[in-house]
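Two proteins were folded this term; both appear here.
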Amino acid sequence: MIEEDLNPYAAPLAELHVEDFQDDSQREDASNTKRFLNYLIDRVALVGCFAGLFFIGGLLENAGMVSGVIEFADQISGITDLVLTAIGTVVYYTFFEAVFGRTLGKLITGTKVIDLEGKRPGVATLLGRSFARIVPFEPFSFFGNGGGWHDRWSDTRVVDMRKPPVPKVRPMPRMPQMYRPPAPLPRS
């Protein structure tokens, strides 16, 4: 016999039940503070992407490989800026959420996009979510209840992955009647 089997002070051995948390529907929604941080970080990242693209385009133009990038960058008007920002927003959010499941802002704040069933949304859902972001005044939709328009219109949620899942409340099974002793007899 193994000596450990005879140890009366050993902890009891039990099979542990490990829950599968691929279903994130039990996770808590991210706070508006984290959502605002996501917005700021992603805006900075988007501007950085544009700056990087124009920088690379400028280098390529100086090397004689392309032409017109510097002139285009110097002559960007208000409407061109709006169109480029809208296209960049849709591409940035759709790409990062479809490929990585998170944008840079969500990665830093520990949040993640899920659908209402707790699963990773499909590309079509993420594309619709990204197009909803370019609606004017959409960032102000967070002042109401239920998240932003891009969440409600695409049936998605942003959850906090750093907080443990909140277990679902299950109804208590009907318990059998407990034994109750008979009432004492009245004294005469």
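Next, the second protein.
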Amino acid sequence: MPRPAERGLTLIELIVTVAILSILATAAVPVTVLTVKRERERELRRDLWTMRDAIDHYKDAADMHAFQTKLDSQNYPPDLETLVNGVEVQGKKVKFLRRIPVDPMTGKAEWGLRSMQDDPQSDSFGGQSVFDVYSKALGTGLDGTKYSTW
């Protein structure tokens, strides 16, 4: 009695298929890692721009005498929380920032701060006022620069 045609994969076909899928998966992992890093860097740049823009708006309003600031602050905010909590301007609360963003590189809402009195490359904050913000991440970006210099 003749045997009916058997259906299915032979062991060699199965091994070849698994090997091809493994090679494709191995090639996809670095691309995925690179894409995730690029997106986090894009988010870091956007967050830094947002906070620096809020600092600039605060200073512009203070320069126009919309509210009082400390004499030695040069009209910059004392901290980032002031940008979130807002200041009283003609009986209204004006906020410059909705929230302090989380640093996508460290996963924390902690940022390095610089005042006008600090050295531009310093990583210690004098505490007088917030002139600039930077990431506390120790890594290096895809462009070869350190995150803390962005």
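The CA atoms of residues 63 and 75 lie 6 Å apart. The beta strands are 87-89, 92-94, 112-114, 132-134. These notes refer to the second protein only.
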